[in-house]
Amino acid sequence: MEEEKALRAALHLLKIRDRSIFELKSRLKRKKFPPAIIDKIIAKLLTQKLLDDEKFAKLWIDFRSSFRPKGERVLRLELQKFGLAQEIIDQALKGQSSQDVQFELAYKAALKKRAFKTLPPDEFHQKITGFLARRGFSWEVIQQVIAKMSKSEQLG
């Protein structure tokens, strides 16, 4: 009975979005399920391939890249928060770490801040720098984005 209830709770959480093993265990613990039942449910979900940390990491990065672009540093911290192993994080971020990819993500994020465009150039640079830095982009990438945005402002 308790096991069935735990399985239903786990499947409900997975229906909302994919989860890491650590995250699902934590959520089930919060619901006061016994550790033995949680371990049994996790094992069952792993064998059924409904729970996969590698898949979760890739999906999380894809989601972030599409909707809320973040730099590699912030993505790494988020994935660590989900309890993923360092090797899984490194593998998932492999394609994200190039300077070109980081630049494209940062530029995409910066373009969404239309309100900043009405500011004087110094304040604009300050706001965009802070915004991108908080999202985990490197100083080099931020400088490239500001240069491109400034150039396109002069041309357009």
UniProtKB/TrEMBL annotation:
Gene3D superfamilies: Winged helix-like DNA-binding domain superfamily/Winged helix DNA-binding domain. GO terms for cellular component: cytoplasm. Residues 6-45 form the RecX first three-helical domain. Residues 100-146 form the RecX third three-helical domain. Keywords: Cytoplasm. Its main location: cytoplasm. It is found in: Cytoplasm. It comes from the Bacteria. The keyword RNA-binding does not apply. It holds the Pfam family RecX_HTH1. Belongs to the RecX family. Modulates RecA activity. This is Regulatory protein RecX. It comes from Candidatus Nealsonbacteria bacterium CG23_combo_of_CG06-09_8_20_14_all_40_13. The lineage of its organism: Bacteria, Candidatus Nealsoniibacteriota. The gene is recX.
